[in-house]
């Protein structure tokens, strides 16, 4: 049985290679292999439903053996990774057909499977070296995926890889410090070592590790790579990036705070505010800030994918806020929101990808009225935006409700206010998305747009259904989360299949009643509506404009700068963007670099020869006197 | 008021008549109109109040008049010019008095005066798909037009 | 039995339509000045259930307040067609009746009901608020007796109206 | 089982009736404030039935017709979450936080329906409606949290029970009550905040293309909306009544004061309205929140 953990880890990588080779043979062979192998990984993952494996050693490096392990929490992230990757691969078969040359497509599918394998590796890792190894593989393969999106994505990918590398250095230093203290980097040994280590050592390692995770989880100060990377990446890759990749940052935080460093250990070495350790409290404030500011930025966007990218920054803020509360209800809410966010954000990105596949443009003010031509994608997007806004019957609401209840129990009131403001703001930009893409006036040039082919509809439909399923039956995911959290020393919270009974939080919640009453009310009102005199359809140009005839050559409904008036209210907040600070420092380094570089590479030949001579003499001296100096 | 009249007299090619207090007329030849308007503006007549046409059908001429107003001296002056009625063409005063743009569009539509230099003068301004004589001309018979196009309530042909 | 209930529904509907008349009026002529006094506290037309509304979709009565020249007639026809049945048209003043003082003008139409069916005219070169309120009460009686069927006439001989409109609008 | 069906039918009807009576009084009160006689008392019934019995209705598409239906369904759902004196309906299965989100279904339905037209007035109206909602949501959330913290429960029925025999939240948290009144006033879209359906600027905003039975359903939705907003205010701050009569009297009192100030103010610009909501009501609400935290 334990051999199959390595098998589970190896399948995506083997699949990647085989698809590359298959690509040489024929297009359909490659597509088939890619789908088969991702299906195989999903199958293997399903086998580990609620099994826990401690250390499965699969090698050793610098004296600390490399370990694989799995428990329900890792299974949750494994489920997210493999399911979304399978749906993305199925979606990209038709979506990437426009990319003519096959070589690019071969490497594209290979990288998709490599990213999946790397993320599986991160989640299964039992020790910090495997964790870091697969972390790097993930960063690089996702860089290559982003760069597929054409010329502008090169710059986005470049910024992404620079910031990921900076985060990786921070993690590397922390791992090195830990390795110096305990020669074995398996989680349990590290936890043991940390419990005896001095508080300053603990704080240093934890801060350095979480900097790496914050870059990947795009928490506010380090988030600037995400809007460019997610919007420039090809449309099937964006759900993978923002649905799954940023959850790895959240998983890393969970492992660091609750795996290596258990909650009560953090409590007694740091002063605690509102009964949470100071470090966690700062992280909560960062997450809350990123919720509010990213929502404001998302409201003002004109490009559909950038809007969704900023909304990813704010939604991942909820996950980090939930994880950092420390109470079992809050952490469970954070983990459940990670799953929900992967589902509805993947759905939204795929639906927007379908619109881009048919209309070719992302600019929201050029689109409109597609509900008549693409009804299926409209319903999927509608379910997605209802879930993202957190409106009850769908899945976004339950996890947000848990996070709010946790914050109320801990009386962290200002964080709660910022979370609520973020959620109402989400309602605004979410409606903006569906209004400018699907409602309003259909421009002339999209008259003959049809709905997306079947192969692209299947993933969208699966995600749409799962928003309903996880919304009405939160118990399905709660079984896994609560069982997993028991391992990490959290008191299990009471839950049932439909919601939360009296005891868990201040109030109780059964979502099935909300959904049932809403459905019956809808049906009853619909029947009464039909009884009255019937309606006749009217063309989209037959509108009341005080008598003026509307002609097709002009876009009447107001869609550019939809929240311009709200923008005037938050103009001071929007003007101070962190990106300008980074650019300022980049330019400073550039000037400094150019100035001194010209000193050294003066460009005439003599100086270069003299450099060579100097280097040779130093080398010779070192060799000759080698023995005596050391 | 008399100071202004002497200044206007200095503009050559103008025949100035002062009818009564604040009623000055400046008659000008067709070629010198733009020059006169420019110098009037220099004197201080900064505002073009009215630009319109009087249809002198008797001697087959259009009389185009520009009523100018001098804000400092609080004085009105009217520059008049007579042009031929059969093919009435004038130069645009848009460059000197921007407000002339709309006036010129109106006289182009209502009197059929062709205005060079004002590209929007020919386009329809108030009337929609109008295909008859320019309505403000004296030879346009309004009663005939309206009895052709509209049916009076108690007219003879009792329809319906 | 079916016929009888049909009549009952129609009488009830007419009773309701009589009591809640929403009107849309464009200040196309000089009559619009007469409406504010009828709405405000001295004459207060809202006690009869009348209310001013802004869009054609929500309105029942279209008030043509004064002269209609050819250019505004085109817009008024679009508004009339956008209104939902049952709809009524009231012509204010003598200009809607027979062109009024603009009888010889090349632009003003002489008869309103050649282009859109007018249920009611109010004589007077701008009727006073009292005249307007009596007109509304007459309209209510017409509705009650079912004679206010301008919209039906428009549907029935649409060709006639369209022909007249084309002749004028070109 | 029969009793649940009975309740399921007559609670929305009760809410509709209360909302209807409020609109009747509103027309009369505003008329009296403007020193005119005003329409007959049952004018809203005439208006509603006339709209529903219109012979010809237009629609700009399926979503255009579904919008009012979704809005009405959302409002009916929200009605079940507000405790009626005597029976706590669904308050067990969803607490105050769930109610705040459920009230968003109504505006989502309206926005979807009105968005489907190509009319510029409609989309401007929706953008104003959502911006205003974002504006008054901040103080609303702060006062809701301060009430929750004061009674240590998010269950609305417990909050009402905790305010029994006289010590209402109005006396214990006066500042929050004032902010609650202003926020409910804004949420109802009364005169200074009727930026959404400003007849002079955006021709009744989202409802510009709605007529006939669609507009009738939107009117019914507006009646439910009035009931929900004022019942929530009464339950949170005036201690919800033991019997239906007192419940109605309290709600009518609140509504009467609102109607009096309705005719006195001029309309806000939309960004000034948001600035207003984020300045004074938020500051006052934060003060009362800090008082609760300290207490």
Number of helices of chain A: 25
Count every beta strand of chain C, where a strand is a DSSP E run of 2 or more residues. Answer: 5
Rg result of chain C: 16 Å
Q: How many structural domains in the coordinates of chain C?
A: 1
- Give the termini distance of chain C in whole angstroms: 49 Å
SS class of chain C: alpha/beta
**Poorly predicted ranges of chain C (pLDDT <50, ≥5 residues)?**
none
**Largest sheet of chain C, order of strands side by side?**
2-1-3-4-5
What about the largest sheet of chain A?
2 strands, antiparallel
DSSP helix fraction of chain C: 40-55%
Work out the strand percent of chain C. 5-15%
CATH architectural category of chain C = 3-Layer(aba) Sandwich
Mean pLDDT of chain C: 88
Low-confidence stretches of chain A: none
Derived from helix and strand composition plus strand pairing, the structural class of chain A reads mainly alpha
**Large-scale geometry of chain A:** globular
Shape of chain C: globular
Number of helices, where a helix is a run of at least 4 consecutive DSSP H or I residues of chain C: 7
**In CATH's first tier, which class of chain C applies?**
Alpha Beta
Describe the structure.
- The complex is a heterotetramer of chains A (630), B (160), C (170) and D (295).
- Chain A is built from 25 helices and 7 strands.
- Chain A is mostly helical.
- In chain A, β3 and β4 form a beta hairpin.
- The longest helix of chain A is centred in the middle third of the chain and has 32 residues, at 328-359.
- Chain A starts with a helix and ends with a helix.
- Chain C has 170 residues and is an alpha/beta fold.
- Chain C has helices at 2-19, 35-39, 70-82, 93-98, 129-145, 150-156, 158-169, and strands at residues 21-26, 50-52, 61-65, 88-92, 120-122.
- The longest helix of chain C has 18 residues, at 2-19.
- The model of chain C has no long low-confidence stretch (mean pLDDT 88).
- In chain D, 61% of the residues are buried.
- The interface between C and D is medium-sized, with 24 and 30 residues.
